[in-house]
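Re: that backbone. Tokens:
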């Protein structure tokens, strides 16, 4: 496939027409059909379906679901079979290859360098599988009692993952579950789990937004000469530990500047000329 065809596929996901000079393209090994460290594996049909589901999915870091962590996007996939190589299950070894792109910006320069240098290499995928099947007896959902990783009559027991329901994201990680790539597997009532994670993420974002506003407010009280707009932009780049440290520092500065004032005064402390009718 030439660069013109690659750009056509990439531009399906872009709001403005991107040129070859604006994008950096690389490929990743998402997952395979080998038995992994958890004694689980995708079957070949699952790889094909996952290939369809992962087109358009974002790349993250360590499966942290945040828009700030989005780095790249998959624009095409292909299942690759390696002739002569056999899995622990006894079938031909196959793996899911994906092509992703990211923009050549100053922000992404370090990441591109790490990809080129082989530092950012291992990846892991987040997906949902409808079925988990015991390799020994074919029972689903662990009801048979066979233990993955043990041998029964000389046959290794593992869980076969079938019928992908959805693909969420793929991430650069340090240690993937799969030796060739990696996988983070989620099962059961995935929609409920996903909704709960999103609610937690939204609450976290609201908490940080409130914390940033409070830090900006305290900073303005502590220093009349501070440029509020510039400080607000700076605060937007800070995370909770730095924000809490600044909050404590500015609270102390505000207290020193204005002093601690009692909310209520005794009646005898009110000057005679003060005719305020509301005394508590």
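Recovered sequence:
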């Amino acid at each position: 496939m030439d660069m013109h065809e690659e750009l056509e596929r990439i531009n399906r996901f872009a709001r403005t027409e991107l040129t070859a000079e604006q994008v950096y393209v690389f490929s990743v090994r998402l997952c395979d059909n080998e038995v992994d460290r958890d004694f689980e594996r995708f079957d070949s049909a699952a790889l094909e379906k996952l290939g369809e589901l992962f087109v358009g999915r974002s790349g993250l870091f360590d499966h942290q679901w945040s828009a700030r962590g989005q780095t790249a996007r998959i624009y095409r996939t292909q299942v690759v079979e390696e002739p002569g190589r056999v899995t622990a299950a006894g079938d031909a070894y196959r793996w899911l290859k994906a092509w992703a792109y990211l923009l050549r910006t100053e922000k992404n320069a370090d990441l591109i360098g790490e990809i080129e240098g082989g530092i950012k290499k291992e990846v892991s995928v987040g997906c949902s599988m409808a079925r988990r099947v015991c390799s020994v007896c074919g029972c689903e959902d662990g009801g048979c009692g066979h233990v993955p990783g043990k041998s029964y009559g000389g046959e290794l027991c593992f869980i076969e993952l079938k019928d992908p329901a959805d693909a969420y994201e793929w991430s650069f990680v340090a240690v993937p579950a799969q030796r060739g790539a990696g996988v983070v597997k989620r099962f059961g009532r995935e929609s409920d789990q996903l909704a709960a994670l999103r609610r937690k993420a939204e609450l976290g974002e609201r908490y940080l937004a409130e914390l940033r506003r409070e830090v900006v407010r305290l900073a303005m009280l502590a220093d009349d000469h501070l440029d509020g707009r510039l400080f607000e932009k700076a605060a937007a780049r800070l995370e909770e530990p730095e924000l809490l440290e600044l909050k404590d520092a500015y609270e102390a500065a505000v207290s020193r500047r204005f002093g601690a004032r009692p909310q209520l005064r005794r009646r005898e402390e009110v000057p005679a000329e003060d005719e305020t009718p509301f005394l508590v």
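Residues 3-187 form one domain. The helical segments are 3-10, 44-53, 109-116, 190-222, 228-235, 240-258.
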